[in-house]
Amino acid sequence: MSRFWSQVVRDLTPYVPGEQPKIANLIKLNTNEHPFPPSPAVVAAIQAELGDDGARLRLYPDPNADLLKNAVARRYAVTAAEVFVGNGSDEVLAHVFMALLKHDAPILFPDITYSFYPVYCGLYGVDSITIPLAADFSIDPADYCGQPGKNGKIGGIIFPNPNAPTGRLMALDAVEQIVRANPDCVVVVDEAYVDFGGDTAIPLTQKYDNLLVIHTLSKSRSLAGLRVGYAVGHPALIEALERVKNSFNSYPLDRLAIVGAVAAIEDETHFQTCCQAVIATRTQLSADLAALGFEVLPSAANFIFARHPQRDAAELARALRERSIIVRHFKLPRIDQFLRITIGSDADCQALTDGLRDIL
Ligand code: PMP
Fold this sequence. Notes:
single chain, 360 residues, seven-stranded mixed β-sheet, 12 strands
């Protein structure tokens, strides 16, 4: 271990992302990317920005990414002052942990959830209380209403909706119940997967100044490689995020990301068509896995969380890997017998079910 490390670094347990293999001919169903390419308008916008000689790359991008904030504002009928943008929603989340979650009271999140939350707690010195999911792996809103933290204070609440890696959706009125019950702290709803079957809570930001909704372009807009995410909430929350951003990296989004993201947000037809296709494939894959004996949790996301009552999940993941198919397996209590399978193209999902039939 390096003698130059600080204690903070020594104590960190960093997030381990899903494998991003270098081999092209693998069927990659492990990190919830979209099977379809982004809108053709994205490619055209990036090519136009590059021009023939890339001369514009000499120049810094707009530090406020106003074009993008305006596109998000138009899409969700809010104002640009209610929008914060960042280099992927992971970066937006980092700003949230720095700026909006109180550092003198524990925050609440589910015990089975996006594994970056505990990592950011470690990095930014935020204390946390984890709340177990219900027996059916759903989040019970009552667990987040009126439960005091240490000394009766709560520093904030964060959860994905749909939750990850379970895919389970919380109804919008339950989200509202949590927001209403916690007026003195920020409630962050991470809607990375909402476009595959949920309703966004963004309209509720017009009614509650303690609600922040986070979106990513990595999933439903097919742009994981471009790294764009945003948050929508009351201008006072956005101002706090901007203050942290301007103390950290004034230019988080590059020129290509800004124009590409705008084009993706503006192509509603491509977005709707591709999301509907993923939803149809999810229905088919859920039925196919059930027919193979899997217990499949209801999913509102672009992945399925499933277990086979007789077969070890790690073994299944290994056997699939030998057939060039990668799925995600988490070695965590309560979910170590589940596989998380991204909804790929119809052909990818067919290859997965054929592979499983062979293994079982
Ligand atoms: N939130 C959740 C719940 C996620 O699963 C992910 C993707 N791993 C993210 C946020 C981050 O996505 P990105 O940084 O690509 O926007």
